[in-house]
Amino acid sequence: MASAKRVLKTFDVTSMVTGNMIGSGIFLLAGYAAAPISNDITLILAWIGGGIMALLGAFCIAELSTRFPETGGDFLYIHKVFGPFPAFLFGWMSLAIFETGSV
């Protein structure tokens, strides 16, 4: 089986991931998230805490992608760890729920 051609550069992939993570929801939802918080320091700490959690998640995905250097992403990781049936379920959930929610 032929290997996939790697034509995307670091900037291309970084831009795609950043656009997927941020999306347009940050401009609308930030006000709703900040409304119930009365203290400015608490709001800043909440944003920092969320950023740290997102960074830890990114580190986990980076570790998995270096451990399994194949195409497939999350489907591949679930298949390798939990087996084919959970990966199959994730694939369909990703198609029907996760990816269509951003449209």
UniProtKB/TrEMBL annotation:
| UniProt keyword Transmembrane helix, yes or no | yes
Q: Which InterPro entries match?
A: AA/rel_permease1, AminoAcid_Transporter
Where are the membrane-spanning stretches? 12-35, 41-64, 76-98
Protein name (record): Amino acid permease/ SLC12A domain-containing protein
| Topology of this chain in the membrane | Multi-pass membrane protein
Show the Pfam families listed in the entry.
Answer: AA_permease_2
Any one Gene Ontology molecular-function term assigned to this protein's record: L-amino acid transmembrane transporter activity
Compartments reported by the entry: Membrane
* One GO CC annotation: membrane
Mind telling me which Gene3D superfamilies this protein's record contains? Answer: Amino acid/polyamine transporter I
PANTHER family per UniProt: AMINO ACID TRANSPORTER, SOBREMESA, ISOFORM B
- Which keywords describe this protein according to UniProt? Membrane, Transmembrane, Transmembrane helix
